[in-house]
């Protein structure tokens, strides 16, 4: 008997990216090709049926963003400061993984949750570094410590062209 599919949502500060390492399987289960037992990693989030960044975003191929994460020793570096692990296996199974945060000097697509920092300011210095559109996803879950009581966005400078 299989339990439902479950998700682990990972988020780091906006100036970090996440790397996960599969350490070991716990219990007696094997991932299979018919997707009854699986552990997958997703570069970005799938939240209430919506994918972030969007599945049709031309900068990020959705098919390469989702990868199997079922063999001990597998390492997955996410492109953003957010990622997730999706899993399903028979009751009694489990797994262990390690999470690391690495500096991202030039964040482009970022996820912000609640009170991300003390002064409430996020700065993206894009200039000529990124040749694609950048996006800020504002994440508000019931578990977010800080609550947005209204939101004010200010763009201090922009060059187009």
Automatic annotation (TrEMBL):
Membrane-traversing stretches: none
Source organism superkingdom: Eukaryota
Single GO term (MF): corticotropin-releasing hormone binding
Gene Ontology cellular-component annotations: extracellular space
UniProt domain Corticotropin-releasing factor binding protein N-terminal: residue ranges: 5-100
GO terms for biological process, alphabetical: hormone-mediated signaling pathway; negative regulation of corticotropin secretion
Protein's UniProt name: Corticotropin-releasing factor binding protein N-terminal domain-containing protein
């Amino acid at each position: 008997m299989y339990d439902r599919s479950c998700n682990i949502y990972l988020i780091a500060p906006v100036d970090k990216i996440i790397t996960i390492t599969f350490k070991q399987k716990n219990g007696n289960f094997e991932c299979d090709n018919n997707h009854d037992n699986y552990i997958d990693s997703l570069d970005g989030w799938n939240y209430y049926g919506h994918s972030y960044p969007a599945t049709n975003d031309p900068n990020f191929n959705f098919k390469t963003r989702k990868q199997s994460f079922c063999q001990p020793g597998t390492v997955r570096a996410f492109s953003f400061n957010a990622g997730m692990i999706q899993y399903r296996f028979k009751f009694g199974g489990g797994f262990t993984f390690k999470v690391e945060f690495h500096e991202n000097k030039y964040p482009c697509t970022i996820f912000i949750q609640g009170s991300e920092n003390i002064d409430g300011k996020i700065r993206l210095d894009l200039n000529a570094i990124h040749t694609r559109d950048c996006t800020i996803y504002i994440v508000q879950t019931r578990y977010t410590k800080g609550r947005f009581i209204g939101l004010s966005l200010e763009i201090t400078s922009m060059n187009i062209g």
